[in-house]
Amino acid sequence: MLKILLTKKLSPEVYQSALPKAQVDSMDFISTEYFPDREILAKIENETDFIVSSLKAAQWAIKNQIKGNFYCVGEKSRNLLSKNNPVLATAGYAEDLVQIIQEKYNQKRFCFLCSDIRLDTIPDTLKSSKILLTEVPVYRTRSLAPPLEAPYNAYAFFSPSGVKSFFKTYKIPNNSFIFALGDSTKNSLESFTENRIFTPENPKTQDLIYLIKRTLYAQK
């Protein structure tokens, strides 16, 4: 029986129909916790244009009824935020979002709602283009190390922070398959392993699950 590790806790409905004959272990390797709302709201009271690169940050904005223009990484964040606010730009990856901002919105001032641990892509690129940006962490990210029944035939990763947390404690065998939800996660993995890394065409969880199915069962 194939053994697959998903390094994020997912509902079984997401993967059971695609991988019915595999042993799938799905567990979190990071935890998140919001900072106090009052502290964050005081920092953004004069902001009108918000960059959001995670669903966690988008959920915070909705919970606190933040009003303004939004620029998002990911369809889930866009769909959530667009119910109450204009979403002026959306992209699958941070690199593509900052390119849109550079081309169309370079005269604006932005507030980046993020984690205390985040990639440099958005702030470094915008600042290098002289685009005004304020970073406001809305949640903290911490590493977890759940016990594993290693080794697995395949390992799937969903974020750079999840990658870093995993490799603090564990290693991946040279003959195991590795899957990454998107390019940023793939780039992070390349710092820890020389195994081939598979990514779906679109950074969607369901697309990643089907890629795992196609790849693993093609080997049998």
UniProtKB/TrEMBL annotation:
<dbReference type="GO" id="GO:0006780">
    <property type="term" value="P:uroporphyrinogen III biosynthetic process"/>
</dbReference>
<feature type="domain" description="Tetrapyrrole biosynthesis uroporphyrinogen III synthase">
    <location>
        <begin position="52"/>
        <end position="209"/>
    </location>
</feature>
<dbReference type="InterPro" id="IPR003754">
    <property type="entry name" value="4pyrrol_synth_uPrphyn_synth"/>
</dbReference>
<dbReference type="GO" id="GO:0005829">
    <property type="term" value="C:cytosol"/>
</dbReference>
<protein>
    <submittedName>
        <fullName>Uroporphyrinogen-III synthase</fullName>
    </submittedName>
</protein>
<dbReference type="InterPro" id="IPR036108">
    <property type="entry name" value="4pyrrol_syn_uPrphyn_synt_sf"/>
</dbReference>
<dbReference type="GO" id="GO:0004852">
    <property type="term" value="F:uroporphyrinogen-III synthase activity"/>
</dbReference>
<dbReference type="InterPro" id="IPR039793">
    <property type="entry name" value="UROS/Hem4"/>
</dbReference>
<dbReference type="Pfam" id="PF02602">
    <property type="entry name" value="HEM4"/>
</dbReference>
